[in-house]
Amino acid sequence: MNEADSSYGLLSQTSSIAETRNERLQRHLPVWISLQWLRAGWRDLTTRPSLSLAYGFGIFLISLTLVWLLIYFGLDYILFPALAGFMIVAPVLAIGLYEKSRTLGDGKNVTLSHMILVKPRAGAQVYFVGVMFCLLMLLWMRAAVLIYALFFGVRPFPGLDHIAELLLTQPVGWAMLFVGTIVGGLFASFAFAISVFSIPMLLDKSTDAMTAMGMSMALVWNNFIPMVVWGIIVAAFFTACVLTGLIGLIVVFPLLGHATWHAYLAVARTEE
User: Is the model's pTM score more than 0.90?
Assistant: First the structure.
């Protein structure tokens, strides 16, 4: 079977994921399999650690620059939605970490330039997915602004130093947090489902973007509990990074990137 036929076969398996579970896509993984992925990710991080930490430092600098630009241009009212939206595009930014883990797994030498100048087997399909994730992030940020307007009307944004008090001490703030959490959770769940395996798959296989995203969603659906646990772990780590002023990204981003590759090996690559 050629790769085009294989892609069609994978896509056909995802066409009715909402109707039934597919036994072929179920891995019967332990609930806490995520801890094994983290251990494997830590092993990859500590193998040539300077490469992973340099990559994480680059992500930290990019994130810090974007935060500074938002504040400098008076766009601080979208700062928190932007930080949350970062999780949507993070899988694309982590492709170099997937490449390091893949190369180490193949027993080959890896360099920083190799991680940055990645040549995915799916070619430009990765960029297509990246654009889609960026659009999804922008859609979430617009939704967050609309939610704020729904509860506070045209009231100007009170500033970062007063927003916490506004949200935590007033009933309207509690209501906005409740609705925002639900809407944000829906965005995050959808983004996680279509991205967690699609980017590693596009790096690893010559397939198209829609097949990769559909297959990722199908695999998440058919291995629901372990993937929910993994999603919670990722969200918890990212929250910790935000609480450290994003400095934690230097270590956490590479760790999660490498661990995600091992999640892909355990759940998706077995389709081969």
Answer: no
Our count of domains for the chain comes to 1
**Burial class, 104, CB count within 10 angstroms (exposed 0-12 / middle 13-18 / buried 19+):** middle
Question: Could you tell me the pLDDT band of residue 271, with boundaries at 50, 70 and 90?
Answer: low
% helix / strand / coil in the chain, to the nearest 5?
80, 0, 20
Q: What is the pLDDT of residue 20?
A: 53
**195 Rama class: left (phi>0) / alpha (psi -120 to 50) / beta:** alpha
In a domain, 157, yes or no: yes
E strand or H helix at 208, and its extent? none
Distance (Å, whole) CA 20 – CA 242: 38
* Tokens 């992500």, residue located: 59
Q: Does residue 141 lie within any of the structural domains?
A: yes
| pLDDT tens-digit readout, 100-148 | 999 999 999 999 999 999 999 998 899 999 999 999 999 999 999 899 8
230: nearest Cα among 197, 206, 272, 199: 197
